[in-house]
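Page 42, continued from yesterday. The earlier attempt failed because a stray header line got pasted into the input along with the sequence. Redoing it now with the clean sequence only.
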Amino acid sequence: MNGNILGALKANAAKNPQKTALCVKRNGEYVKYSYGRFYEMVCSVANRLIETGVTRNDFVGLFSENSPEWVVAYFAIHASGAAVVPLDAQYTERELSNLLPFAGVKTLLCSRALYDKIIKTLDEKLKFESIYLIDDQAVDNSIFKMPAYEGYRVTREENDRMSLIFTSGTTGDPKGVVLTDRNFHSNVESIINMGGLMDETDVVLTILPLHHCFSFTATTLLPLMLGASLTFQPSLKGPDILEAMNETGVTKMAGVPQLFSIFEKNIFSKTEKLSFFQKKIFNALFRLSEKIYDKTGVMAGKFLFKKVTSAFGAKFRFFVSGGAKLDSKTAKNLAVVGLEILEGYGLTETAPVLTLNPPGAARIGSCGKPLPGVEMKILNPGAEGVGEIIARGPNLMEGYYKHPESTAEVIKDGWFYTGDLGYFDKDGYLFITGRAKDVIVMASGKNVYPDEVEKHYQQCRFVAEMCVMGEETSDGRIEKLKAIVVPNYRLLREQNIANCTNYIKCDFEELSLKVPTYMRITDFKIISDELPRTRLGKLKRNEIKKRGLFDRAGDDAVKKPELTAEEKELMSAPIAERLLERLKNLTGKTEMYPSDSLELDLGVDSLTRLELFVILESEFGLKVKDSEAASLIHLKDILERVVKDG
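This time it went through. Structure tokens are written below.
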């Protein structure tokens, strides 16, 4: 594929003007944008931006939830000659007040909902020159009200800035990655040149936030440059995802490890409801499929577990995983039942993909092979071949915006120092072992990689997640390891275990015997909170340390206040009692109080929250709108809604 990004969009519009480029289900009906309509809107909005003063390499903000209109807005900004600043739809006014002035954003394209919620007030402070709504056709500043134009006016160069993506410092000193046309275009070409990943016949499901580089490249830029179709699914609820996949004939989908863990859990939890003989048959077929896969790499599960694979649609081929390390057990279990996941590796700074597993030749636990045109090597490998991963190629960023010192720290002689540790096997597959900055240097001189320790101890089935850190002495030396542990409350509930600490301790003692002494956890604390992670699932280790979660953690028994008369009445309502039983099964909590925070007290993370909303709708007749979801903070909020409306 030659040319540039706009040229590819123009060619696809000319070749297949009526073919669906973008679609989304709204109010029970699919709204579709053909390639012809999509390209016309991109050109129309781009020329309006030019008329209102947007010039080459200006930074223009894009603040919206995922939608087809987000994509129109992105490429319109691109076609105007400007660079896009894609913003997380979950940013607060405080974060935007820090980021937008830093980037010098004067023109903003946003959704109606976020305009009403944040931007309308923020505009009084920041005084934007222009604000355009991307999804409201009834207002004068809607992108749908732009006059029609036949084409774009700007000729872009390969070193023009295409995007400024913030990776950290949203409330402090921002760190924004500047990526050029060449960075993105070369990365897409490398993915295509790998072969067998995608073509114009594909339908790609887009569910991850598009302000993330991985999601944008894998589920938007790549398919659109090839002439494939995109299906948007704003919901992360399992039934909604499967519905969209089946109704639109989805063939490929990109996700993050947490999502695939949910798929795995849902698939295998259904086996618990099988009869004794059905379960015996399932287990026998699973062992057979696993043996075939281990020996030949052939996924016999596609045929042996047709009922499982068919749920994702008749045309579905494979998943792509990125953003964080995929659990090998999850990848293996899904592969055995016929669901292939191609794990890749990359960073925002590399636009973003560096390696990817080839279709049909994926290696469990590996991030795959370097893309064509990308050069990689291991710096200062140790005895086992592990060292820092460095890379270079045309996809390497221009630099960190307004941070030349930070740029110089990671780019040396044309090589990008990723800060990740790993090794290549004899066949050229990359394996990630941890972060260089995360390495714990023990007083004995031994290097401990917390990822490895966590993976080992998470074999304890009573552990949902954990974070390992060093126990510092008064003089700053690290002689022991400690951990913060979030229990698997659901399993504990199923087994009627009230005090999880002793069970986890027993398992940890057995697991400790299987690793060297310097890798053994000597102390751990239980917390019920979900550990802080990035939107793509990586542990925020520095934040965990700064928040002092280990020191603040307590026992798994916490004294609660007496219930008021109103609270007793609320919780004794028959429908409330039914819901409480379902919640206990969902969260693993044996005791609940109206004042409980869904997140902090009941351990309801973002994905468990989605499961809860599915239960509310399917079993209690209560449909929670996306706009209402954020306001349901405490157990009382949900109980009151169910008692009132259920």
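Notes: The first strand starts at residue 20 and ends at 26.
Reminder to self: strip header lines before submitting.
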